[in-house]
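Example record

The entry below shows one chain as it appears in the dataset: sequence first, then structure tokens.
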Amino acid sequence: MKITTEYRRQSRRSLDKRVLSLKPFEHLFEIPSGWLKATRESLGISSRALEARLKISSGSVVRAEQREKEGNITLNMLRVIAAAMECKLVYAFLPLGKNQTFESILEQRAKILAEQILREVSHTMKLEAQSVDLENSEQERKKLVATLMEKLDARLWETKN
């Protein structure tokens, strides 16, 4: 099935709505001791009791808690441990900026790429002794940004900025 431009746009808007509803709680997502240990302790489950529920060897829960703090635990392992504590693992990708959305990420990247493309075109035109119409350049820039976003040009993600 071919994914259409409109489908991608709607998908992005849907994700943006979800993300914006999570943003006010972003500061709650990270716990210094890790979610696994904090949850286990708040429920009063000893590491031995959790190991017994999971049917895993002694010390495995403490090692899993350490791996979570280090960022070296799999989502599947967290999911399994959460279920053993009668919980559910929830995760999400949130745009980095405070008010940033997926749409704004894409727009920023499109603006950077549009600037790069227009600079190259302007340079070529100068080499050919052609003038650049500054009045139309802003309109062209906006059109180019819209086109790059609509087509999700692969070059959007080839630059580091």
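Notes for this example: The chain has a mean pLDDT of 87. The CA atoms of residues 125 and 131 lie 7 Å apart.
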